[in-house]
């Protein structure tokens, strides 16, 4: 309104100025005959000035303002605007798929890894709603990257396929090595309704699953990671049944919370509170740190972490908490388990498939049990005995209420005679595998200097003998 008033006033002002100038010119011409020379010159100058002002008048008129250019809005796809029902009463599958399709088809900001478009950090916002899903949520095809899905709940319908996942990063038709890159799933709750699983990440690169709660998955996986590279699962909670331990139905827990079938992945600061297997690993170079497993007690047939890749394990389990459930490793090669707390008689099993165990470090852990002497590390040689054993270190573990096992042992024995025997079977992990012996004989009698030597090293026993009877104490240290 103010701009319109200004535009209307400008012609009026200009007309007044021009009228004044013309009147001055007329005045000068009318009275030039009766004027003095000085006044006549002054009037002529005023007339000249008026003519110059008239020629320059167009410069006084400002050009019309340039309209502002439209600025593109943020790349946020709010699913309710596509027809999704945040109350969870109506099926929202098609609406969310439409949002995913539009995000996928949005403007590209270049390329990430070959074949994957950079979507510029586009966001699919679930707007805090709870959405009923009847079939998997998938992108139209391979090739999306730099995108976030966050902020709501996905619940499987009663007819959701039992062999599928609520969100699937997958494209069976693609021939690319990596079909998605830098997809982030954050602040989501997945209720699988005891049908299928929650998330499948297939042939994807640098995927983040952050602050997610996954529950009621069926006899399948909560999260499946297959092939691909560098999927990071962190700050999340997974359980087939919602419980905080001591559940009466614990014996019937099934499924696997996290199944890592690829390399270079990480599970960190994550709680697994119900499932038959907490984490199943069949790929190399994975890291588990800060993982708390109380998914199903070992006594009920549960396993906290199962390493199912005999012959080339190359995995690390550090600073974690195995709560009444343990770790099983098949033919482990290059396996590190350290800084982990084992509670409730939880233990580690080395399971022989072909009889191979190499480069295994089980060190600096804490074990707490019921006082029944359950060994902290056990060998399962049901299929075949371990025969190829090298660089295995089980040492420096703190044990309370369980049976200590180690590859390094110390013992002593007092006696008066010519033979001292020390039995290491209660402590040493492998039978009949002593490779190094160090001992000291301390005679109790002053002036006694008998000759002595190790005579027998067999069956995890060490025998030291002297050439003459003597009262002495023998201290022995052995290693596998």
From TrEMBL:
Residues 1-28 form the signal peptide. Gene3D superfamilies: Single-stranded right-handed beta-helix, Pectin lyase-like (2.160.20.10). Keywords: Signal. Coiled coil: none annotated. InterPro entries: Pectin_lyas_fold, Pectin_lyase_fold/virulence, QRT3-like. It comes from the Eukaryota. This is Polygalacturonase QRT3-like.
